[in-house]
Amino acid sequence: MAKEYEKEHGSQGLISRIRKILIYADDAVHVFVALALLLSAVFMLIFTATDFAAVNVSSILLIINDILFVLIIMELFWTVIRYLKRQEFSLKPFLGIGIISSLRRILMLEAQMSMNGHSDYYSLEELGVSAAIVLVLVFSYYLLNRVEGKSAG
After folding, report:
1. Which residues, including other chains, have CB under 8 Å from residue 45's CB and lie 6 or more apart?
2. Tell me: the pLDDT tens digits for 3-62?
3. 8 A C-beta contact, residue 59 and residue 52
4. Under a CB-based contact definition with an 8 Å cutoff, are residues 66 and 51 in contact?
5. Gap between the Cα atoms of 16 and 61, Å rounded
6. At what angle do helices 57-84 and 92-116 cross, to 10 degrees?
């Protein structure tokens, strides 16, 4: 009986040590991802600074597009940070990313249509779909806030 007890608890100790190693490895990967996202955001801002060299409508639109992309990267960065801090998972950052992405696409479509001087059916259709996505995501964000408010109160 003593051997069986030792065998069970010995394997539990091994499993516990392996679990700790895997958690450290998981954290290391997430730290690497966070650093890569932060570095990507910095490089994107440096790249965006080159658009200030020639200030025209096209470069301003590219700057806005790039800055919104940096915001998306930073929202992903903070999602990883929240994970590393073992905070509760939330859909809000992903809804925010979806809203920013859709707005970014709407701005670029509007810019392309105004620069071309005409709107083709595909661009208008894509604009409508992007606007619908924004509305759905904003409504989802609103509902999520209401549900979280009721569960907290």
Report:
1. 66, 70
2. 555 555 668 888 999 999 999 999 999 999 999 999 999 999 999 988 888 888 778 888
3. yes
4. yes
5. 53
6. 170
